[in-house]
Predict the 3D structure of the following.
Amino acid sequence: MKHIIIFLLLSMAVICHAQDHLRFLGCPITGDMKTFVDQMKSKGLATAVHRSWFKGMKTKFLNGSFWNFPDCDIVVRQPKKYNNVTSVYIHPHSNFLLLNDLISVLDDKYGQHTVQYPTSDVNAMNYVWNIPEGCVLIYATTTYGQAFDIMYRDYTEVRMLKAYSDAIDDEL
């Protein structure tokens, strides 16, 4: 089964190579970690030192502004088995009362979102924009007021997660 999953993942990478990549701050979410981080630095982000909490990912932590959030932790993510960056995770430190505004802006840019309710947390809602280039997610919670994080996932990571999920379903 592992061989089939690896074959599918490698095949998807070749097939998807010509597809447009999702952009973050105007830069396509692809390429090696150093090049992508250098592009982010040219957009005004600064490197930050943090310990990674993303299992199975190489990460680079940055700090800076995103949209109307002046102070954000921004994590560039690359699966350890890949040579390219596949996603960007944004944690705004001050996001109180801006969720609806951000959703409206993303709806205007990517089309109407869908809402998912995770079964593991009754206080959570995920807002999702699925587009050909990947997906944008907002992980929102109401446990301690209004808090949320944002994830930009390039199609490479979206398809990798889908293939992994399908493989697990097949084993069950």
About this structure: Strands lie at 23-24, 27-28, 46-47, 57-66, 69-79, 87-92, 114-116, 124-131, 134-141, 147-154. The first strand starts at residue 23 and ends at 24. The first helix runs from residue 2 to 16. Confidence is low (pLDDT under 50) at residues 3-11, 13-18.
